[in-house]
Design brief:
about 700 residues; alpha+beta; Beta-lactamase; Trypsin Inhibitor V, Chain A
């Protein structure tokens, strides 16, 4: 009896325990289902699908006249889902019917594999049931257009299983021209798929504007961890803005060609040439050439922004400061001696070349580039207060970064000017171009200010920012210093620079010039890194403006010579390059401004526009322009010239096949195509000049049409 009771007690206890546990499990199930269900469902979905970012099309960088300097071209990766229903239905009938002709088309066009190889690989992928088989990557637009018309591929995604992914690559149509200033834009992976950008030049400075806003798409993960995009679950990216620069392609070509010729002749290490518009500060050309290991030259660094000891071109700052102190006049005579060296204050100063006479005026000291003469004048005016000279350098923007609209601008280096830190010695040394490091662009800005009657302009490279041809932001010329010196100081500075070309260190180079130039030569011993002064490397330069009587452009040329080069003076290396650039720019851009009034014939050039008929007629009526109306009351029309009169002719836009979009603006093209159920992607500015689906061809709704505007 006791045994039976004991057994029953244990059974009841076990039953109660089971009931309690069951209620707990059921309660937990109810809790998870009602309160945590969404969380666990999302966790489950995340194992099978995920939202990925879609890169926006990077904006285009243009020259001032809207020529493309750097642009993104679409590239296409082609994949196949061999488990697509359209391929698998009826025991793969569609695949088997098209595999031969598809393989032949691939082999004939791409010529990278024969027909048998293509067919074998495609059949094997079909047999394996590959869901994301890569056929081609980085196809250019023209190849993609052709491939879309191949057998199988032209059936559309649902029937062919073809998946298209669009990417882009950066292209610089003008190659070497301004390559380093325009810069590059590229990405690479670090730390397990983390993307890092490596941009330089304008591509870096305006990266946030050029990049645009990324889109999103939903992808499904299939066997092997491959992500396949899901149709209909996509937010299109917002393309980047376009940057319109101040650069002129023709000027850039002239500057690069002239610099390249001298670099090849002299085998110099590197060189730069900058052309600036005098009145505005716009950079019209900026060439940078560095010698490569194979003896060729490439735009490998922005030497225009690289700081170094400038040599005698800094003497303009000394001249201006001395004249502004009113302790010396332009005709003050200076004893420079005949030995080519002299003790000035606490140091010995040497002249690169013997002076033509023992006593020179201040103007002649500048024209003949006498280190002795300029340092003696600096010592006379600032020996008691070297820091006063430094204040002038600050006024001329020679001790601060150039304000140009680029990133990674080097900061100038300047020796201390305090008396207890060798200030007098350093001030004398700076007066003829050492103990100070500035960039060629800073030097050019100072000389341009003299050409601009004392007004120093901010150098800049970007005119405006646009999106789809609409101006988002515009940059205007900016004055840094309204007047860097008195009217008399500017006048004497101009006379001194003109004397360089007529009687000084540049007279042999510019003796046969058809117009007057003004400027200054410079030759500096180089000491940086492992290179010492005694290694015989020189920085040769010439900076100035033209024409001297009415300056339109200023220009600087700086070339770093090879060790112990026979040609290393500024008048030998840099001045001839300046002369070639100035002569060609004068003939092309300055002299042609003097246009005689002539009677022109009526414009007989061809043009072609297309658009909505009522809107085009409204434009003509508003402008009170006569036209020939042959539109036959059709909604869409073309406009073209005939016998000097515009003709409006009807344009047929069918709804059953692809219309001819040539001549339409983007707004009208979008209206037409989106009403036909098509998606549109465009590149360029202007009217439609090319369309990915040819006019008259059939199309399927939801297809993407690529438009090229120009």
């Amino acid at each position: 009896m006791e045994v039976k009771r004991d057994i029953l007690w244990r059974v009841y206890l076990s039953f109660i325990g089971i009931v309690v546990i069951s209620f707990f499990v059921l309660g937990r199930v109810v809790y998870i289902q009602n309160f945590q269900g969404n969380y666990w469902k999302s966790m489950s979905d995340s194992l099978h699908q995920r939202i990925e970012e879609i890169d926006a099309r990077r904006g285009t960088i243009y020259s001032e006249d809207k020529q493309m300097l750097s642009t993104s071209l679409p590239t296409f990766a082609i994949y196949f889902d061999f488990m697509a229903d359209g391929l698998r239905e009826k025991n793969g009938k569609r695949f088997k019917e098209n595999i031969d002709s598809f393989s032949i088309s691939l082999a004939n066009h791409f010529k990278d594999k024969d027909v048998i190889t293509y067919k074998k690989e495609l059949q094997q992928a079909y047999k394996n049931g590959d869901r994301y088989y890569l056929l081609k990557r980085k196809l250019e637009f023209q190849d993609f257009k052709i491939l879309r018309e191949f057998p199988l591929a032209k059936l559309g995604r649902n029937k062919s299983g073809m998946i298209v992914e669009e990417n882009s690559k950066r292209l610089m149509p003008f190659g070497l021209l301004a390559n380093r200033t325009i810069g590059l834009s590229r990405e690479y992976l670090i730390n397990k798929r983390k993307i890092k950008k490596q941009n330089v030049g304008l591509e870096k400075s305006y990266d946030s504007l050029l990049t645009g806003q990324k889109g999103q798409r939903l992808v499904r993960f299939i066997a092997g961890g491959v992500a396949v995009p899901i149709d209909g679950y996509q937010i299109e990216p917002e393309n980047g803005k376009d940057v319109i620069t101040t650069l002129d392609v023709n000027m850039q070509d002239l500057a690069s060609t002239a610099l390249m010729r001298m670099m090849l002749e002299s085998e110099s290490q590197y060189g730069t040439a900058i052309v600036m518009e005098t009145k505005t500060g716009k950079i019209k050309a900026i060439a940078n050439l560095g010698r490569q290991t194979d003896g060729t030259y490439w735009e490998d660094n922005n030497y225009a922004l690289q700081v170094s000891e400038p040599g005698s071109t800094i003497k303009l700052a000394t001249l201006l400061a001395v004249l502004e102190e009113n302790k010396s006049s332009i005709n003050e005579m200076v004893d420079v001696g005949t030995a080519g060296k002299m003790t000035v204050g606490p140091r010995i100063v040497n002249d690169a070349e013997r002076s033509p006479k023992p006593i020179l005026s201040l103007k002649e000291c500048f024209a003949h580039s006498s280190n002795v003469g300029m340092s003696k004048l600096a010592y006379k005016n600032f020996g008691a207060n070297p820091e006063k000279f430094k204040s002038y350098l600050h006024q001329y923007y020679l001790d601060v970064k150039s304000p140009i609209d680029l990133s990674d601008v080097a900061k100038p280096q300047l020796a201390p000017f305090e008396k207890n830190r060798g200030g007098i010695m350093n001030m004398i040394t700076v007066s003829f171009g050492y103990a100070i490091q500035v960039s060629p662009l800073q030097t050019l800005s100072l000389y341009n200010a003299i050409a601009n009657n004392g007004k120093m302009m901010k150098p800049y490279l970007v005119n405006k920012i646009e999106r789809e041809g609409i101006v988002q932001k515009e940059f205007n010329p900016t004055t840094l210093v309204e007047n860097i010196g008195s009217a008399s100081t500017i006048k004497y500075a101009k006379e001194s620079m003109e004397a360089v070309a007529t009687e000084g260190t540049g007279k042999y180079v510019f003796k046969d010039m058809p117009f007057a130039v003004a400027g200054k030569t410079g030759t500096a011993h180089v000491a940086d890194g492992k290179v010492k002064y005694e290694d015989g490397v020189y920085l040769a330069s010439f900076v100035g403006y033209f024409p001297a009587n009415d300056p339109q452009f200023s220009c600087i040329v700086v070339i770093r010579s090879k060790p112990h080069a026979a040609l290393h003076y500024g008048g030998q290396l840099a001045a001839p390059v300046f002369k070639e650039i100035a002569t060609k720019l004068y003939a092309t851009y300055v002299d042609k401004k003097k246009i005689n009034i002539v009677n022109f014939k009526k414009d007989s050039s061809k043009y072609y526009y297309a658009g909505y008929t009522s809107e085009i007629k409204n434009v003509f009526n508003t402008l009170q322009m006569s036209f020939v109306d042959s539109s036959m009351q059709m909604k869409w029309c073309n406009v073209f010239p005939a016998n000097y009169n515009p003709v409006i002719k009807n344009k047929i836009m069918a709804a059953t096949y692809m219309p001819n979009l040539k001549g339409l603006g983007l707004k009208d093209a979008l209206f037409l195509l989106e009403n036909l159920g098509l998606k549109v992607k465009s590149n360029g500015v202007g009217k439609v000049v090319e369309q990915s689906i040819a006019a008259g061809n059939n199309f399927s709704k939801g297809s993407v049409v690529y438009l090229v505007l120009g």
